[in-house]
Write a structure and sequence with these properties.
The protein is of the alpha/beta class and 606 residues long. Helix content is 43%, strand content 16%. The strands form six sheets. It has a five-stranded parallel beta sheet with strand order 8-14-15-3-16, sandwiched between helices. Strand 12 and strand 13 form a beta hairpin. Helix 3 runs antiparallel to helix 7 and helix 15 crosses helix 16. It is flat, with a radius of gyration of 30 Å.
């Protein structure tokens, strides 16, 4: 925990130093509140000035811009004091700083007029953001079956050509994962003797490849398969050995030994490149859904760096600029996190100027850092907004830590709320009601392409006058939901946010369902119980799930679990579902629904 921050000769604070006694907790969202002019920007400037070996404060950030002054920043973390000034820095050794603020800068262009006059035009620009400082080179590890056959010796005709497998990214990752086992195996001669004994037996055989294979005896592999290192290695490769005979597994292992011992450095380089390509693809997928401008903002390789280039700030709206630059900065920070290091991420008043619903997007990315659960990230939001304003945030109470620098303290239809709360109110201790709860969840509240009809079961349990049992039919419910989505997307003054949120869940789950490449996988996907587990299942089976689809879960998760309090006769509503009207969220929703101005049909969620 960080319990003190002290600043001297930086921005608004001179000598003696300004001391802030506080409690910043790792793996929490520390919302640091103070009115303007009380030190937030000074804290950000101090941490932003940290360099290896010293504190390098820009002239504009020095107290009264006096270059003769010696700036200083110190922190107390876990009871130990660390300090940085213009000649030394003990902070960076224990805590890596990152500061996010507006990326907007003022630029000028000059135009000579008649040789005597110069016309200067100003415009707002957005700094390029470096995502990756050094792009890994593209490397293809050296696999030659002819070389492996030569190493194999007599009867190498039974060695299978696995060239397609040995360039597959997932296989190369597995090769690196199993590399320690292979190195250990290669260091022991008695283990190599197991392999040589099998080779000697195979070398003694005669006939065609098929005849040789037919003569191979299972007992030859007993000694090798009793070796724990061999078994550990093959267990790591089990994904690629399904259905193989003992001879085929031995053949793969022999090739692995040769491949790893001759190409391990290239394998590692290829995996770094594959990871880079995967990160960039997901990065661009996130940007594509976030970007509601006509500029098609995406990452660009610039020399050996990956950067995001933005248009001039006056060519996109303030909201678009803010959320795009913010999201890119967060993704860039995420790419720099290393195991074993501690970080402090300071977000300087960015949230104060974001549209309300942009906090949904910010919350998701920030929560992903916290989900690492290593206790190594101090995530701090610097704000002048009163903490009560942070009702917009969807962080759980356990993840939020309010810090005070100074001691200061759309129309939802009753029918839709009744339908949603009906499911939540079913008695889980009653077998019949529990069965109906599971069916409604599986078939109506989550995506299922097969139509159902539970209207009679709902009617039998109806107690709320506003409940419409006919919505237990897939076609009836989807018609109502898509009508409200059309109202929302076309800018209708009144729409039901709960209906839109429910349609949103169906839509995002359908988008991923449609990308699965077999009916078996699709059926298994539908049978996963929660959206996050559905997405994990899809990712495990090769489908790219953009982070933005997880972001909007914050909206439909709250909407789909609306409850009714029978005592107060009120619905226990939360605010998140009412954030749909924000323009940034609207832009994301249009992308998700593929809306082009025409009215949607139920095909969008069927």
């Amino acid at each position: 925990m960080i319990t003190q921050i002290s600043i001297k000769n930086i921005k608004g604070f001179g000598d003696p130093a300004k001391v802030f006694n506080l409690e910043l907790k790792p793996n929490r969202v520390n919302i640091i509140y103070a009115p303007n002019g009380t030190g937030k920007s000074s804290i950000a400037a101090a941490f932003k000035s940290l360099r290896p070996g010293k504190l390098e404060v820009a002239v504009d950030d020095l107290y009264r811009k006096d270059e003769t002054l010696v700036p200083e920043l110190s922190i107390v973390m876990d009871g130990v004091t660390y300090t940085a000034n213009n000649t030394s820095n003990t902070i960076n050794g224990v805590l890596e700083p990152c500061v996010i603020n507006s990326g907007t800068v003022v630029c000028t262009t000059q135009q000579n007029i008649g040789g005597r006059y110069t016309k200067v035009s100003g415009y707002l620009d957005i700094d390029n953001i470096e995502v990756i400082g050094k792009i890994p080179p593209s490397v293809v590890p050296h696999y030659r079956v002819t070389e492996i056959k030569a190493e194999f010796g007599d009867n190498s005709k039974i060695v299978e050509n696995r060239s397609a497998l040995f360039i597959e990214p997932r296989f190369l990752t597995a090769c690196e994962d199993v590399g320690a086992h292979l190195d250990f195996f290669l260091r022991a001669q008695y283990r190599l003797n197991y392999v040589n004994a099998i080779l000697d037996e195979i070398h003694s055989l005669r006939g065609t490849a098929e005849q040789v294979v037919a003569q191979v005896q299972d007992a030859w592999f007993d000694a090798l398969e009793a070796d724990s290192t061999y078994m550990a290695a093959m267990q790591e490769m089990s994904e690629f050995t399904v259905g193989m005979t003992r001879l085929q597994r031995f053949d793969l292992f022999f090739q692995l030994l040769y491949f790893w011992s001759h190409s391990k450095q290239d394998i590692r380089k290829a995996n770094k490149r594959a990871l880079y390509e995967e990160q960039r693809a997901k990065f661009d997928a996130n940007l594509a859904l976030l970007d509601s401008t006509w500029k098609s903002i995406k990452s660009v390789e610039e020399k050996d760096r990956l950067v995001v280039q933005f248009p001039h700030a006056d060519e996109i709206s303030n909201g678009q600029r803010d959320i795009l630059t913010f999201a890119v900065d967060l993704l860039r920070f995420k790419s720099q996190i290393q195991v074993g290091k501690k970080y402090i991420l300071l977000i300087d008043e960015v949230f104060d100027y974001l549209d309300d619903a942009n906090t949904i997007t910010a919350q998701y990315f920030l929560s992903k850092f916290l989900d690492l659960n290593r206790g190594n990230i101090y995530l701090c939001l610097l704000t002048h907004l009163n903490p009560f304003s942070f009702k917009n945030y969807v962080f759980s109470d356990k993840k939020v830590n309010f810090v005070y620098l100074l001691p200061t303290q759309p129309v939802a239809a009753d029918a839709m709320k009744a339908f949603i709360s009906f499911r939540e109110g079913l008695d889980k201790n009653d077998a019949a009601q529990l069965d109906l709860y599971e069916k409604l969840s599986h078939d109506l509240f989550h995506y299922n392409p097969l139509p159902v009809d539970y209207s009679l079961q709902i009617a039998a349990l109806k107690t709320n006058v506003h409940l419409n049992p006919s919505w237990g039919k897939t076609n009836e419910l989807h018609r109502v939901l898509i009508d409200e989505v059309n109202k929302y997307l076309t800018g209708n003054a009144v729409y039901d946010p709960y209906a839109v949120a429910m349609a949103l869940r169906l839509r995002v789950e359908k988008l991923i369902y449609d990308q699965l490449n077999s009916q078996v996988l699709k059926d298994d996907y539908v049978n996963q119980k929660m959206t996050k587990y559905k997405f994990k299942f899809a990712e495990d089976n090769g489908v790219l799930v953009p982070d933005i689809l997880n972001v909007v879960n914050a909206i439909h998760n709250e909407a789909d679990h609306l409850k009714y309090d029978a005592v107060s006769h009120q619905y226990l509503e939360k605010s998140m579902v009412y954030k749909l009207q924000n323009n940034v969220i609207l832009g994301i929703m249009k992308n998700i629904f593929g809306w082009n101005g025409a009215f949607l049909t139920t095909d969008a969620i069927d």
